[in-house]
Specification:
The structure holds 2 protein chains of 2 kinds. By secondary structure, chain A is of the alpha/beta class. Chain A has helices at 14-25, 39-48, 62-74, 85-101, 128-133, 149-166, 176-180, 247-262, 265-268, 287-302, 320-329, 343-351, 370-384, and strands at residues 10-13, 29-32, 55-58, 79-83, 105-113, 119-123, 142-144, 169-175, 182-185, 231-233, 271-274, 281-284, 307-312, 314-316, 332-337, 357-361. In chain A, the strands form 3 sheets. In chain A, strands 2, 3, 4, 5, 6, 7, 8 and 14 form an 8-stranded mixed beta sheet that branches. Chain A has a 5-stranded mixed beta sheet with strand order 11-13-12-15-16, with helices on both faces. In chain A, helix 1 crosses helix 2, helix 10 (287-302) crosses helix 13 (370-384) and helix 11 crosses helix 12 (343-351). Chain B contains 12 helices and 8 strands. Chain B has an 8-stranded mixed beta sheet with strand order 2-1-3-4-6-5-8-7, sandwiched between helices. In chain B, helix 5 packs across helix 6. The chains are: A alpha/beta, B alpha/beta. At the A-B interface, strand 3, helix 3, helix 4 and strand 10 of A face strand 2, helix 3, helix 5 and helix 12 of B.
Chain lengths: 385, 276
């Protein structure tokens, strides 16, 4: 491995780190629409992309931004948009189009309090299920949940790489706290960051089938203008890319779309575990809430409560193995989230009764604190004793 | 080039015959787009045809280019992404009256406002055909549709005026009947550097004609012949004589900075410090 050059320390917000990650990952097209608390991502890329010949466009609405991103990706550029709650809702139809036509793209959703306009500058984690099921029909989804500024950089790079590798939309589920908080970070030099570029076809246009999958179930992807004259449609299509109107082709296509992500679940899905080995109670928390949970684990252990933490880094695919493991060893699991219970449904499904699962939910626009978690852990301890 | 040669070169012959109903004007318009493309110097491999959803938006599937059949109303947003990402590509948008003026209306005015170099051909058949004949923003007021069984009370758009007001720099209208004029207007639009918009009044005998006392497609074409007035001829007519008629021909043309070009000469140059 080449010697790593370390850049000097910087004070960055999560949204700014997302901009840096996007640039290093090779994003060269951004289309967006102003919305709090994600706007800094657009502002940062408006400034930086033109310097490297990249393209920034502010579209007339969220729907148009998503459409432009897909068009640009089909034209060969690594493409991204950023939004928040209401805007994420508006983008859903075109996210489904990208899943169906297998167009790589990254959607940053800095989650804010909802539903509707809600509390625009207040944090929430209410979009975990929307990220999975926001667009209609069965479809694959990859969604990543950073908990720090540095991790926002790393996961932005990973999101771009996964989108390119899997030819599917990848969502970065930031929350308002991670998006806006500032931390001291040392970002890696661009040359030390591993990148993935979509695989282009090697076949001649005469024999090329644009939706014929390779062994990894992902079809190679030419760009418009490469001479392949291919058709992209949101209609059910066969390997030629053209609509066929047959249910059997839908069955083949949608199952493959699902499988290309599912079969990589062990590689993509992951969680960080902290002091779970001997933990009697395990907190499951992601994003900014995981920061409180980590502090709570330390504090609780000082008080003699054996607390541990599983921090899902990927929302989708969900890190089943990490939950499966603590469900076998812990007396109870507590899912702490800034919503009324979304991630808990996955935890309950995987725990399958082996350990009782409790919720800790706040929707008063305040971050769940370490104290909240310790109090809940004490309640649960008494409950399961 | 003979019709057979045009079809062999520019159509995906294995995808024909098309899905359109007997008497539909969409084939005439697709043919005009192909003839217009043939008259220009664009490279077939560097031309992308983008559409939304509806009868008209099925046309790209039959055309031998890079093609993109997007979501309802969003063709111009996708096309903007393609063109802005790759300004060297020639991007053509085929859309319908409902697709482009109702659900896609916002994208239409903003694409026109930017003056991005797209050529848009609207197949205006006055109806939502694919869904079985509901009224659109271009359905003439007081005509009948499945969702206007007592006649539509909605006032209809003059889409050409809208696009010109929004900043479109080439605006033209023709009809399926005036097929030769249509080819020339589309070809001029293709060569125009900026947002080019061509509305084509066409017939939907199945869902518009049957409900609105047009016994056959020929009657609808005759209606187009009788109600379309060339710009020059209209200049000699009184408002009374023009009542109920519509203009065809080149309605507006101006030279104005094109979006992707200005991005290069202005934004990128400033960002790189080449100019202040």
């Amino acid at each position: 491995m080449a010697a790593k050059t370390k850049c000097k320390a910087q004070l960055l917000s999560g949204n700014e780190a997302c901009v840096q990650g996007a640039l290093v990952a090779g994003i060269r097209f951004f289309a967006g629409y102003p919305i709090t608390p994600s706007t800094e991502v657009a502002e940062g890329l408006a400034e930086e992309l033109p310097k490297i010949g990249g393209r920034f466009i502010q579209m007339e609405d969220e729907i148009a931004s998503m459409g432009a991103v897909i068009g640009a990706s089909l034209a060969g550029l690594k493409s991204m948009t950023a939004t928040s709650g209401p805007g994420f809702s508006l983008k859903q139809e075109n996210i489904g189009f990208a899943a169906m036509t297998e167009v790589p793209c990254v959607v940053v959703n800095v989650q804010r309090y909802g539903p509707s306009t809600g509390l625009p500058t207040s944090p929430a984690q209410g979009d975990i299920m929307q990220a999975r099921w926001g667009t209609h029909g069965d479809h694959p989804v990859v969604a990543l949940m950073p908990a720090s500024v540095r991790e926002t950089f790393d996961l932005t790079v990973e999101a771009v790489n996964l989108a390119e590798e899997l030819r599917t939309p990848v969502i970065i589920l930031l929350d308002e706290v991670v998006g806006h908080m500032r931390e001291r970070v040392e970002l890696p030099a661009a040359e030390d960051v591993e990148l993935f570029n979509r695989v282009k076809p090697t076949e001649s246009p005469d024999t090329f089938l644009p939706y014929k999958p390779a062994a990894n179930l992902v079809p190679p992807m030419p760009a418009y203008g490469d001479g392949y004259r291919f058709h992209a449609t949101g209609l059910v299509h066969d390997e030629t890319g053209f609509p066929c109107g047959k249910g059997a082709d839908g069955n083949t296509l949608v199952r493959r779309l699902q499988a290309k992500v599912e079969q990589r679940q062990p590689k993509i899905a992951r969680a960080e575990t902290f002091q779970t080995e001997d933990a009697e109670i395990v907190i499951v928390a992601a994003g900014s809430v995981a920061r409180s949970a980590r502090a709570a684990v330390k504090e609780a252990r000082a008080q003699g409560i054996k607390l541990g933490l599983v921090r899902p880094i990927t929302a989708w695919p969900f890190p089943e193995e990490a939950i499966d493991s603590v469900a076998q060893t812990a007396k109870a699991l507590i899912v702490a989230e800034m919503n009324l219970g979304q991630m808990i449904l996955e935890v309950e499904r995987i725990a399958a009764g082996r350990a009782p699962v409790f919720g800790l939910n706040r929707i008063d626009a305040e971050l769940i604190t370490p104290e909240d978690i310790i109090v809940r852990a004490q309640e649960v301890t008494n409950n399961v004793r | 080039m003979s019709v057979k040669d045009l079809v062999d070169r520019y159509c995906r012959v294995d995808k024909l015959p098309h899905i359109w109903c007997p008497g539909c004007g969409n084939g005439i318009i697709m043919g005009a787009v192909i003839r217009a493309l043939d008259k220009t110097d664009f490279d077939q491999d560097k031309t992308v045809i983008v559409s939304g959803i509806g009868c008209s938006s099925r046309a790209p599937g039959y055309m031998n280019f890079d093609t993109l059949h997007t979501t309802h109303g969003r063709a111009l947003a996708y096309a903007t992404g393609v063109k802005f990402a790759r300004p060297d590509l020639n991007v053509v948008v085929l859309t319908g009256d409902g697709d482009c003026s109702a659900i896609g209306g916002n994208h239409l005015i903003h694409a026109a406002r930017r003056n991005i170099d797209l050529t848009v051909v609207v197949f205006n058949n006055s109806i939502y055909g694919m869904t079985g004949g509901q009224f659109s923003p271009l359905t003439p007021a007081h005509s009948y549709a499945s969702t206007a069984p007592y006649g539509s009370i909605d006032r209809n758009f003059d889409l050409c005026k809208l696009v010109q007001a929004a900043g479109g720099t080439y605006v033209a209208r023709s009809t399926a009947y005036h097929a030769r004029q249509l080819v020339n207007l589309i070809a001029t639009g293709l060569n125009h550097k900026g947002f080019a918009f061509i509305e084509v009044v066409t017939q939907c005998p199945m869902y518009y004609g049957r409900r609105n006392k047009f016994p056959s497609p020929v009657d609808m074409l005759k209606w187009q012949q009788e109600h379309a007035v060339p710009v020059k001829a209209a200049a000699k007519l009184s408002p009374e004589q023009m009542a109920g008629k519509f203009l065809i021909g080149e309605l507006h043309r101006e030279e104005a900075p094109e979006y992707t070009a200005v991005y290069e000469t202005d934004v990128i140059a400033k960002a790189r410090g080449d100019i202040n």
